[in-house]
Amino acid sequence: MDKLVIQGGSPLSGEVRVSGAKNAALPLMCASLLTGEPVRFSNLPRLKDVTTMLGLLARMGVQVSLDDRLGVELRAERVTEPLAPYDLVKTMRASILVLGPLLARCGEARVSLPGGCAIGLRPVDQHVKGLQQMGAEIRVDQGYIAARAGRLRGARIVADIVTVTGTENLMMAATLAHGTTVLENAAREPEVADLANCLNAMGARIRGAGTDVITIEGVDHLHGTAHAIMPDRIETGTFLAAAAATGGTIRLHGTDGKILDAVLDKLREAGAEVQVEPGVVSLAMRRRPKSVSLRTAPYPAFPTDMQAQFMALDAIAEGTGVITETIFENRFMHALELQRLGADIEISGNTAIVRGAPRLQGATVMATDLRASASLVIAGLVAEGETTVERIYHLDRGYESIEEKLSQLGARIRRVH
Ligand code: UD1
Predict the structure, then answer these.
(1) What's the pLDDT tens digit per position in 120-148?
(2) Residues 378-394 pLDDT 10s
(3) Quick check: 62 and 76 in contact, CB under 8 A?
(4) Backbone φ, ψ for residue 153 (5° rounding)
(5) H or E segment and range at residue 387
(6) CA geometry: angle at 326 spanning 321 and 327, to 5°?
(7) What angle in degrees, to the nearest 10, is found between the helix axes of 48-59 and 22-31?
(8) 93 Cα–ligand 1 center, Å
(9) What is the pTM of this model?
(10) How many Å is the Cα radius of gyration of the chain?
(11) Among 327, 350, 370, 395, which residue has the most ligand 1 atoms within 8 Å of its CB, making it the best to mutate?
């Protein structure tokens, strides 16, 4: 298994290009199931999760042609097998995103339940409830969600909790339903709006994406289109947090500062100078960071996917930061590993109290999930001496060429096979 070996202590400095967003690419690729015509995506991030999704779609009969310029064309002329098997769903929970499109296009779907997940239970009851309200018959059979429907019917669906992939699944299903669907308490994440823009370019009639009420008038067919995947706000935030922690100066291009307000505010509070220009975000940190307290919540509040990286930042900051995680239970596994590097973190329920230490010491640590891995890399960049991050297959799921991009910014980091 690959590891990353990091010699800490160099401030990040320079420019790097941000990739397309993983959490936009995955639902967008699933949207191709809704039409027999080709859908072309540019700015596709080269990630393990993207490869897994392409494999899943190809298994269902979707023709996949990749080009070497971060583009892919997907053509679901015929869906031969509307099935997402356990071996794929267990590695990537976002596979649940095929459920809505398959049901709308084929009238049936079998999607494995995701099973246990390291960062919480993450049930899919809201996806199921919404589809049932649209007329689907759904049962759980041998660990699979088995769904059937004639043409789905528009419905008013009020989510009990805000769910990102749940909103996306129902929005995709509703595009081909008979009548109008209204999704209330919908997720407002920019990735939901990116998906709606692409669906509208395919002929869907969606209004309100990016707000908590989304209205979808069903149409009879969707057609092909070309769509550029939005930039990855979590990759952007991760590099900015890494630069802030190391006392660096960086400029990120191919990104969008407007979708990162909560994160940029916290970086400024930590003492960073942050500048936003069209397509570019720059950061300079000229002092030891100050601790920041934060609470994760659905967009536009502070994202849970940036919580671990800010815990690493607080670990070396001046003062004490209180971090509250409200989205996922059990999302503090990185705290134990950060402690191995010398961080002073006390966990009580869903709150972590982080007392900033003047320095961290390199050690061997183990990545436990995608964003936890990123926090360990940030801590390793700051720690004195050598840090080895094991099990980095989690990082490869969501960060494109992270060691190459960090090396480009002057970090001493290498991958060991
Ligand atoms: C998406 C993101 C993930 C991010 C998360 C929260 C993708 C591919 N992944 O995941 O990176 O961390 O949003 O911003 O976009 N829940 C239920 N029932 C449901 C669905 C969700 O109880 O039917 C709960 C979950 O257990 C969790 C919360 O709702 O506690 C939010 O989950 P959700 O927004 O659905 O996360 P994902 O869409 O899986």
Answers:
(1) 446 899 999 999 999 999 998 888 999 99
(2) 999 999 999 999 999 88
(3) yes
(4) -110, 145
(5) strand 386-390
(6) 130
(7) 10
(8) 10
(9) 0.97
(10) 21
(11) 327
